[in-house]
Amino acid sequence: MYRIILFLGLIALAAGGAAWVADQSGDVALSWDGWRVQTTLPVFVLALGVAIVAAMLVWGMLRALWRLPERIRRNARERRHARGRHAITQGLLAIGHGDSTAARRHADVARRHAADDPLALLLHAQSAQLEGDRGAARAAFHAMAEREDTRLLGLRGLFIEAQRADDPVAAVGLAEEALKLAPASTWASHAVLGFRCARGDWSGALAILDNNLASGLIDKPAYRRQRGVLLTARALELETVDRDLSRDSVMEAVKLAPTLVPAAVLAAKYQSEAHQTRRAMRIVEAAWLAHPHPDLADAYAHVKLGDSARQRLVRVETLAAKAPGHLEGALAVARAAIDAAEFARAREALAPFIAAPTQRVAMLMAEIERTEHGDTGRARAWTLRAVRALHDPVWTADGYVSDKWRPVSPVSGRLDAFQWQMPLAALPSDNNGAIEASSFEQAMLATPPSPRRGEISGKNLVEPPREQEAAGDVNVPPAAQDNSPARPAAAEPAPVPVPPPTEAVAASAPPLFRARQDLPRQDLPTAAGRPAPAIPAVIPIVRAPDDPGIDDEPESAEFAEQIAPVQGQAGGWRGFLSRWGG
After folding, report:
1. Residues 6 or more apart whose Cβ sits within 8 Å of residue 224
2. What Rg do the C-alpha atoms of the chain give, in angstroms?
3. d(Cα 266, Cα 531) in Å, to the nearest integer?
4. What is the reported pTM?
5. Residue-wise pLDDT tens digits, 345-387
6. Could you give the CA distance from residue 400 to residue 417 in angstroms, rounded to a whole number?
7. Is 84 exposed, middle or buried (0-12, 13-18, 19+ CB in 10 A)?
8. In a 10 Å sphere around its CB, with 0-12 CB exposed, 13-18 middle and 19+ buried, how is residue 98 labelled?
């Protein structure tokens, strides 16, 4: 609207000016070197306007001719750039589709037509990675690292290539250089933090964590938790080297992360040694309410050194009452009751979990049967149930199972990755969710016992008395309840394939963390193909008729050695110190 009004105003002004010039009277005379031109004023004004327009046209033509070569070059450059951009777009799409041949072809076109474009270098590097040409990929990333605008991207590419080449020294150097250029770089911070944790450089890891907080990569609650984890790791490492620094570190860690189990256990130990019993109990109780754990129960039971077994039982019952109905509380009460020879109390604590026992529940029931009545047959039956029982919670991170807590995951290098949870077993399960035994175990269970094996003090362990079976006191596998050798055995399931042990996990882990995987070899698989904590390999012993009986001393000692690893999972300060110090 305003433009129309302005246009009409200009036309009115031009018409008014032309009318004014036409109304003027007089002549205009030009005299130059004997030439004389005389005309009226309107004619002169019109001729002057035509001359100006003609001069402008001539100047425009001359200027266009002068700039023609530059315009031709610019148009050609724009066409090449357009072709290069098109090749980059198609190449990136080909990489997304996984077409390495098309990606390489478009990368060559982009390099010819848009060699200076950062995306062309990126396309060239990614197409080389897709084809497996590591040398070409490194060359492209080196070229990107030399440019100011793509330096960080080039360093990240070289970092990934160094990881794939199993060169941790080069990788950590690249990550540290990238962190200097961009302190807020998430990948560089994560990598450097993981490297320093893997080397045990806890002071350097704490410095990186402070930098993450200052750069805004993590918020305050996450910073407090992760700092508590790093301080706990340093305290555990210095426990036998510098106890003062270890004590200071773990006490700060408990303030930052009061629910962190290893920090609470170690802090309670130091407070107990300093005769600060109430403070030690409060620390353990705070962590127990969030995450019940056997080490917390063990620390709580032994918070007063020199107490009797009955005093420890009372204390553990108080702790278990703070999380009623929890499995760890029942296991802790049963362990303390067995140590105090209160077997009825131990049975009562484990009663809610007998229908679907875990391995630790079954092994504690086996210990109760063997210690209270000397009934080796029932103890053996419970031990066989432990072989087939559900797994107990373990320290797990990224599918990897560890026998003790660790500050970082050996698979991904993630901080505070280990969680106390039940692993997903890779063994097949029936409709009820119970883990099936392997064919070897089923064959052993179906083997009829020798005459001397089935009788102890007049009791038939293979076929228990009917009143005991009805009361549920004996849980004998179905294959062991029939001692008739003429009965045909049921079809055995196919053997369960067991994945490779810890080395398979180490091979799949990033090489920068692979060197730190010093975990002990473990046997049972998990759903991710990684090892789970092994249970005692208890196999029924089939004796020949001329072998000594089941009650003789050598087999009892062997049986005690077999169940000792599970019996000692939550017992005593000595076991606790060996686990956390090992």
Report:
1. 256, 257
2. 41
3. 27
4. 0.59
5. 999 999 999 999 999 999 999 999 999 888 899 999 999 999 9
6. 10
7. buried
8. exposed
